[in-house]
Specification:
The protein is mainly alpha-helical. It has one domain. Helices cover 50% and strands 0% of the residues.
């Protein structure tokens, strides 16, 4: 789970992601730093591919 504060830069990236994927980015299923999150969001935007949450969907007993 992403636990860092959401600043203006990150808020802009999340908004960009949400324009393409209206459900928004699944922050509860992301584990990493702010920069890793921004990099992942950028990758999703560039490839027009939603963030892959299948690991968490397939392993509900694992907690972050």
């Amino acid at each position: 789970m992403f636990v860092e504060p959401i600043d203006e830069e990150l808020e802009r990236k999340l908004d960009e992601y949400e324009v393409i994927f209206p459900e928004g980015f699944p922050l509860m299923q992301f584990d990493g730093t702010k920069q890793e999150l921004i990099d992942e969001i950028n990758k999703c935007i560039e490839t027009k591919t939603e963030y892959d949450t299948s690991f968490w969907d397939n392993n509900p007993d694992i907690e972050t």
